[in-house]
Write a structure and sequence with these properties.
The complex is a heterodimer of chains A (342) and B (416). Chain A is mostly helical. Chain A contains 16 helices and 2 strands. Chain A has a two-stranded antiparallel sheet. In chain A, strand 1 and strand 2 form a beta hairpin. In chain A, helix 2 crosses helix 11, helix 3 runs parallel beside helix 5 and helix 4 crosses helix 5. Chain A is globular. The C terminus of chain A is likely disordered. Chain B is an alpha/beta fold. In chain B, helix 12 packs across helix 13. Classes of the chains: A mainly alpha (342), B alpha/beta (416). At the A-B interface, helix 2, helix 5 and helix 10 of A face helix 1, strand 3, helix 3 and helix 4 of B.
C-alpha cells in the first residue's frame, strides 16, 4: 500500500515539474488523449464493450466548446461544461441504441452513429466544414486564471486530467465497478443474479462518453481549434490503439499508451512518412509479444515476482489480507484475446 | 537534450518580449517545411517541397547576413493538432523563423493563427483556401502559389471564352466543394456562360456513376469537377469509362495537380482542362530549374506548389537580406515591397493582404499520341494575367487592408 502512495507522490511531483523539462503543449496534448483513452478504457476494459465511435464524443464536444467560447463568448469553465454536456447527451442517445447488441454488432452500431456525427460536422455551418473552428479564445478560468499563459493552461489540463482519472479509479473500485466487471466476465450470470445489466451498461457508456467529451473540450482550448480530425473514425481507431498498447483493463495503461502514441506522432513527425509505419510496427509488436499491453505485462510481472517471494518472506504482506487489496490491481483474467474485434 | 531544449525554451520565452527588430535572432535562420508526407498530398507537395526549399537555400549560398540558413521538415499528417503542436514546438524551442508550404486548409489556418501570434513568417504555397488572404489574413503571412478562386475563376472564364458556355457541376458536398462551385459559377456567368445544373456528391465518394449520368443527360458542354484529391481522380476515371469525354463533353478539373495527371495517366485524363500556376515545360528557365529538381527526385517533375516553395523561400531570403533582420513582420513587409522575377513568376508582386499575384495558365492535358515522353502532359492554351486570375483585394475583406485604408484615408488598393 505504501508503495502506491510513494508512486503517486512521485507521479505528482513529476507532473508538476514536467513542463520545465518537456514541451508543455506536447504534455497537454498527451494528457488530453490520456484522459480520452482512460474514458474509453472504462468501457472496453471494465465492461468489455468495444466502442468504435468514441471520436464522436471527443470531437463533437470540441466543436461545442469551440462554438461556446468563440461565438457566444462563454468563459472556459462553462464552455468546457457545455462540451461535456453535449457529449453526455450524445452518449445517452448512442448508448441507448448500441447496448442492445453485443460484440461486433455493438462496434458497428457505434461506428455508424459516429459516422453520422462526422457527416453532420462536415455539413453543419457552425463547424466551418473542413476549416474547423479556428482561433478559439482560451479566456480566463473563473475570471481569475489567464489560460493564455501556457503554464496556467498546463495546470488546468493537469487538474482536469487528475480529476477524470480519480473519478474513473473510484468508479472501477466501487461496488458499481464490481458489477461492471461481473458483466464483462459473464453477462448471463449477472442477469441471473438480478442486476439490470442494461442500466449498468448504459451508465458506464454515458460516463465514458462524458469523460471523452471532457477530454475533447479541453483539447479544443489547448490547441484553440476544433476540426474534423477529432470526429473522424481515425481518432476512434487511435484511442483503441492507445488503450491496447498501454494495457486495457488497467487504470494507468491507457495513460501510458496515450503518451506513447502522442510521442511518436509529435517527436517522430520529422521522420515524415515513417510515423504511421512506426505506429503500425509498435502495434504489431505489442499484439504479438505482450498482449496485455505495457502496463498489463508489468502488472503481471510484478505479481509473479511477489508470488515467488512470498514463501521466503517472514511476514507476507499480501497474504495477511488475502485477495482484497491486490485483487484491485491485478490485471483482469484474460478470457478474451486482445486483438478481438479490433 | 530535452532538458537543454526546455531551458532554451524558457530563456527564449523570457527574451521574446521586447525583441529587437534588428539582426538575425539566435544566429540562425531556420525554415520549417510543414506538410503532408504520407497521405493524399504527399505527391503534390511532400518531400518535393522539402527538396525545393533546400535547393533555394543552397542557391542562395547557405548563409544570409553572415548567419547559416537551416531547413527542417515534419509531417503534419493533415491533422491540425499535429500541425499546430509541431509548429508551436518549432517556434518555442527550436527557433524556427518561417513555416513553409502547409497544405490542407484546416492546418494552414491553424498555422496562420500561431504565426500571427508569435510573429513568425508563414510562407504558404499549397493550401487552397482564400481565407488565408481574406478574413484570416495576417501581417506575417504570404499565400504564394494559388488559391481556389484563381483556379475556379481561371478555368471558368477561360473555358466560356473558348465556347464552353454551358456548365454542369459535380460538387463535393461540403464547404470546400460549395465554395469552389460558387466561385466557378460566378466566373462562368460573368463571362456570359450558363450553368444548366449541379449535383452534390457525398464526400468522400467512390461511385460517381449516377452523378456522371446526370451530367451527361444535361448536355452541358463542360462538366466542372468541384472536388479534390481522391474524388477528382475517381470522377475523372469514371467519366472516361462512361465515354463522356469521347462523346464531346469537356471535363474541367477545378483542383488538379501535375502529379494527379501523372498517376491517372494520359489515356484517362486527355482533354481535361485546368488552371495551373506553373508548368515545368513552359520555357528554358522553367525547364532548367525543373530538371535540377528532377535529378534529386528520381526524375519526377515538380508541381506548381513545389516550384512555388522554391520561389517563396528565395524571395524570403532576399527580403531578409534587404531588410537586415529576420523579424517576421519587417521581412514580410519587405517581401511585399520587392517585385518577384524568377523562373516561377515574372513581374509578380505580393499584395497588402499577403496574396502573391502572378500569371496563371489555362492548360489542356495532351492525348497519349501527342505526348513526346514522360511528364510531357500539358498544352498551354492561354496565359491568364495575374490581376484577372486572383480575387480582387477588396472582395476578400482582409482586416489589414481595411485598417490601412482607414489609416491613410484612402480607398483600399494594391501595395503598389
Amino acid at each position: 500500500m505504501r508503495l502506491y502512495w510513494i508512486a503517486l507522490a512521485v507521479a505528482a511531483v513529476a507532473a508538476v515539474f514536467a513542463p520545465t523539462v518537456l514541451y508543455p503543449v506536447f504534455l497537454m496534448k498527451a494528457l488530453c488523449f490520456a484522459l480520452f483513452a482512460c474514458a474509453f478504457n472504462l468501457l472496453l476494459g471494465y465492461v468489455g464493450l468495444l466502442s468504435f465511435g468514441h471520436a464522436a464524443f471527443f470531437g463533437f464536444a470540441a466543436y461545442a466548446t469551440g462554438h461556446a467560447a468563440k461565438v457566444w463568448g462563454w468563459n472556459p469553465e462553462f464552455a468546457v461544461l457545455a462540451g461535456t454536456a453535449v457529449a453526455t447527451g450524445l452518449g445517452l442517445a448512442f448508448g441507448a441504441l448500441a447496448i442492445r447488441r453485443q460484440g461486433i454488432y455493438f462496434a458497428m452500431i457505434t461506428l455508424a452513429l459516429a459516422q453520422m456525427v462526422y457527416f453532420f460536422s462536415l455539413q453543419a455551418p457552425f463547424t466551418h466544414g473542413e476549416d474547423g473552428i479556428q482561433a478559439i479564445p482560451r479566456g480566463e478560468l473563473f475570471g481569475l486564471f489567464d489560460l493564455r499563459n501556457t503554464e496556467t493552461m498546463y495546470f488546468f489540463v493537469l487538474a482536469v486530467f487528475a480529476g477524470g482519472l480519480w473519478l474513473i479509479w473510484r468508479t472501477v473500485h466501487s461496488p458499481f465497478g464490481q458489477v461492471l466487471k461481473a458483466i464483462r466476465e459473464n453477462e448471463q450470470r449477472a442477469v441471473s443474479l438480478g442486476y439490470k445489466v442494461d442500466h449498468y451498461k448504459l451508465t458506464a457508456f454515458v460516463m465514458s462518453a462524458a469523460l471523452s467529451g471532457l477530454a475533447g473540450s479541453v483539447k479544443a482550448l489547448v490547441f484553440q481549434l476544433a476540426s474534423l480530425t477529432d470526429v473522424h473514425w481515425h481518432t476512434s481507431g487511435e484511442v483503441v490503439l492507445m488503450t491496447l498498447l498501454g494495457g486495457m483493463g488497467t487504470v494507468l495503461g491507457p495513460v501510458v499508451g496515450a503518451f506513447l502514441v502522442v510521442t511518436v506522432q509529435n517527436y517522430f513527425a520529422t521522420f515524415g512518412a515513417w510515423v504511421t509505419i512506426i505506429q503500425g510496427v509498435i502495434f504489431v509488436v505489442v499484439v504479438l509479444l505482450f498482449r496485455r499491453g505495457i502496463v498489463g505485462e508489468l502488472n503481471a510481472l510484478w505479481l509473479r515476482l511477489r508470488r515467488r517471494s512470498v514463501p521466503a518472506a517472514t511476514t507476507p504482506p499480501a497474504a495477511a489480507r488475502p485477495g482484497v487489496e491486490p485483487a484491485a490491481h491485478e490485471p483482469p483474467p484474460r478470457k478474451r484475446r486482445v486483438g478481438e474485434g479490433s | 537534450m530535452r532538458l537543454a531544449s526546455g531551458v532554451l525554451g524558457a530563456v527564449f520565452l523570457l527574451s521574446a518580449g521586447p525583441a529587437a527588430a534588428q539582426g538575425i535572432s539566435n544566429d540562425v535562420v531556420k525554415l520549417g517545411v510543414l506538410n503532408d508526407q504520407s497521405g493524399v498530398y504527399a505527391d503534390l507537395a511532400g518531400q518535393g517541397s522539402v527538396v525545393a526549399a533546400q535547393m533555394a537555400v543552397e542557391d542562395f549560398g547557405g548563409t544570409v547576413l553572415g548567419k547559416t540558413i537551416q531547413v527542417v521538415s515534419a509531417d503534419h499528417q493533415n491533422k491540425p493538432d499535429v500541425g499546430s503542436s509541431v509548429a508551436n514546438q518549432w517556434i518555442d524551442t527550436e527557433q524556427v523563423d518561417a513555416i513553409v508550404d502547409v497544405p490542407t486548409s484546416s492546418v494552414a489556418l491553424a498555422i496562420q493563427e500561431i504565426t500571427r501570434r508569435k510573429n513568425v513568417a508563414h510562407l504558404n504555397s499549397t493550401a487552397a483556401t482564400t481565407d488565408l488572404t481574406g478574413k484570416a489574413c495576417s501581417p506575417t503571412a504570404v499565400h504564394y502559389t494559388y488559391d481556389t478562386y484563381a483556379l475556379a475563376n481561371g478555368t471558368g472564364r477561360a473555358l466560356v471564352q473558348q465556347g464552353g458556355d454551358t456548365w454542369f457541376f459535380i460538387t463535393a458536398d461540403y464547404a470546400f466543394g460549395h465554395n469552389l462551385e460558387q466561385n466557378t459559377a460566378e466566373a462562368v456567368k460573368k463571362a456570359g456562360g450558363k450553368v444548366v445544373g449541379a449535383v452534390r456528391a457525398p464526400f468522400p465518394n467512390n461511385d460517381f456513376s449516377s452523378f456522371l449520368l446526370q451530367a451527361q443527360a444535361s448536355q452541358a458542354k463542360v462538366i466542372g469537377l468541384a472536388n479534390a484529391g481522391g474524388d477528382t481522380i475517381n470522377s475523372i476515371k469514371q467519366a472516361r469509362e462512361f465515354g463522356i469525354t469521347q462523346a464531346g463533353q469537356r471535363l474541367a478539373g477545378l483542383l488538379v495537380f501535375l502529379s494527379d495527371i501523372h498517376s491517372l495517366g494520359l489515356e484517362t485524363t486527355q482533354g481535361l482542362t485546368l488552371t495551373t500556376g506553373f508548368y515545368w515545360d513552359k520555357d528554358d528557365e522553367t525547364r532548367e530549374w525543373s530538371k535540377r529538381w528532377a535529378e534529386r527526385m528520381n526524375g519526377r517533375m515538380p508541381t506548381m506548389v513545389q516550384a512555388g516553395v522554391y520561389s517563396v523561400v528565395m524571395h524570403y531570403l532576399n527580403a531578409i537580406k534587404a531588410a537586415g533582420t529576420d523579424d517576421a513582420k519587417t521581412v514580410v513587409a519587405k517581401m511585399k515591397e520587392m517585385p518577384i522575377n524568377d523562373f516561377f513568376a515574372k513581374n509578380a508582386r505580393i499584395r497588402q493582404d499577403g496574396r502573391m499575384v502572378h500569371d496563371m495558365y489555362l492548360v489542356q492535358v495532351k492525348g497519349p499520341q501527342e505526348s513526346k515522353g514522360a511528364w510531357d502532359y500539358y498544352n498551354i492554351l492561354r496565359t491568364i494575367p495575374g490581376d484577372e486570375a486572383f480575387m480582387p483585394m477588396e472582395a476578400g475583406n482582409c482586416p489589414l487592408v481595411q485598417e490601412a485604408a482607414t489609416k491613410n484615408g484612402q480607398p483600399a488598393g494594391g501595395a503598389r
